[in-house]
Amino acid sequence: MESHHVDDLEVIFDCAGRNDWGKFSFPVWYGIPVKIKWRSYTFDFNLQGRLKRITGSPSVWPDPTEMLKRTESDDFVYYGTDGYELSYDLLKNYYLPYSGKYESALSDARPLESAHVAQALSTFDCLCERAGRLASAAGDRRLKKFLATVAAMDRKMLAQEAGKLHSIIGGSLPVLPPDIIDVDYEVIPLMVTEGCDYQCRFCCFKTADGLKARSRSNIARQVKALRDLYGEDLVNYNSLVLGQNDALGAGEELLRETAETAYAGLRLGESCHGGAPNLFLFGSVGSFMSARESCFDILNALPFSTRINIGLESPDQATLDILGKPLKAVAVTEAFRKAQAVNRRWPNIDVTVNFVLGTDLPLRHLKAVRDLIADAAPCRDKGAVYLSPLIGAATRRQVLEDFRKLKRASALPVYLYLVQSL
Length: 422
Ligand code: SF4
Description:
Elements: E1 2-6, E2 9-13, E3 34-38, E4 41-45, E5 51-56, E6 67-70, E7 76-80, H1 88-91, E8 96-98, H2 115-137, H3 141-152, H4 155-169, E9 188-191, E10 193-194, E11 212-213, H5 216-230, E12 239-243, H6 252-265, E13 278-283, H7 285-290, H8 293-301, E14 305-313, H9 317-323, H10 329-345, E15 349-357, H11 363-374, E16 385-389, H12 396-409, E17 414-416
Parallel strand pairs: 9-12, 12-13, 13-14, 14-15, 15-16, 16-17
Antiparallel strand pairs: 1-2, 2-3, 3-4, 4-5, 5-6, 6-7, 7-8, 10-11
Helix pairs in contact: 2-3, 4-5, 5-6, 6-8, 11-12
């Protein structure tokens, strides 16, 4: 650790945090940030001087366990706690990440609209100006350079950097696979396909067109540009998410080439985080059912721990019809069984699934989900089932009641799915 005091600022370099993505009910940080302590706040920056997190002492912050986090797509997410009900048991996380978009099924809290968040961001604006003034007076070269970068990376510039990210990958990821909560949403996005073939009526995240794979040259160009964009902060990443909503539909050869190109190009094996790098992607029922054994052999042999999440929605035909999901219930049941089989056979692959929750759905839906997950054979801690409350379609009480019924009956781990985007 290297600490500098310059005027009323303290700047701390090389303050390595945890490298295991462990989950704790008290505040920890992961990776290697640079911290600036100023005016009762602690601002964490990435190694390129971009704001990452804000916390504060009791005079300016209501709870020392809570934090404001900025994503690489320049969204703010508030990590709060909301009592026992929203604890690890429910979310696989001790904190509820409030993005202000999708958590209304779980909480009425609006921390992003609070006065202490507004005050913290306004203090950050002042910090950028202050860093610029202090940079010229700083004697130490490393300190001088870092303060100058912080000064340049004000909120306007941070928004432009996020624009660069989306322009590199040619779009955004409107929804991230739920398993990414295991790496605190710290993933590098890479687009391998766009769209999906189902166009389900209920879906808020579908894109206009059907499934389309990116070309090899496009993927290689993305990797090169991402390497430049993330620069020296690449060391803080060991996880890749392949976009968009059905990356598995890219097919085994394109997936293999993409994963290998990204592994080398983004130096994922050289990260400060321990363990195998992570590869996250969505698959559809169709792409998953048409994936041959050779596809799983290929994914299993990659230098990644791979998580594939499949949106099954419901094993009940009437519910699928109401949702406008063009699938037969029997295909959903087969996909669920295949997920269990893949989890048993390939050690480096974990297939997880999603079902929806909503009060407007037929009663048979909940029973069909319960029967399916109660009957499954557990495979270590793999094969989690995520329950996704349909936006605006259920009260919080109902969501929690249905969640508990299913969790109690399930042979597999069950969690609620809180949508995050990138
Ligand atoms: S398959 Fe998934 S992403 Fe595509 S429209 Fe249906 S729910 Fe949305």
